[in-house]
Amino acid sequence: VIQGQQEHKFNTELQAHAPSLLLYLFWEKRLQGLSASDVSEQIIKSMELPKGLQGVGPGSNDDTLLSAVASALHTSSAPITGQLSAAVEKNPAVWLNTSQPLCKAFIVTDEDIRKQEERVQQVRKKLEEALMADILSRATDAAQVDEVEMDNGEEA
């Protein structure tokens, strides 16, 4: 975005009516180098992206691609298709579709959906097992505390 010293009608109208349209090209690059951390400030490992999802643009890497896709999912309700033009690889500054993340066009197949559903079921089962183990552990601890209290009460 270039702003001059003079007040132009176009700039004023654009800023007044659609401030969300003022996006910078490759703005996702600002997220490069940032990572999530847990409460103990340990860096959380970045997730693995599907093989069919490939970034485009200058200095593209998996972390930037993940940020771009996540941002697109959160900022728009439109479907994510990636950059449909093959020319975007030659000159992304000219052929870039700014409403899509910086990745090559991709298609999600029924097989991809089935595999993801299986992974979700596996993770849910692991979570259920972990919660059950936690409940049993807490119940055992509570029973031991009750036993100690009863023993102390009987001796007095």
Automatic annotation (TrEMBL):
| One GO cellular component term noted in the UniProt record for this chain | NuRD complex
* Domain (Methyl-CpG binding protein 2/3 C-terminal) ranges: 42-131
Query: Which segments of the protein form a coiled coil according to its record?
Result: none
The source's domain of life comes to Eukaryota
GO process annotations (BP): DNA methylation-dependent constitutive heterochromatin formation; negative regulation of transcription by RNA polymerase II
Q: What GO molecular function terms would the record report?
A: C2H2 zinc finger domain binding; methyl-CpG binding
PANTHER family under this entry? METHYL-CPG BINDING PROTEIN, MBD (PTHR12396), METHYL-CPG-BINDING DOMAIN PROTEIN 2 (PTHR12396:SF5)
Please report the name of this protein according to its UniProt entry: Methyl-CpG binding domain protein 2
The opening ranks of the lineage are:
Eukaryota, Metazoa, Chordata, Craniata, Vertebrata
Q: Which gene encodes it?
A: MBD2
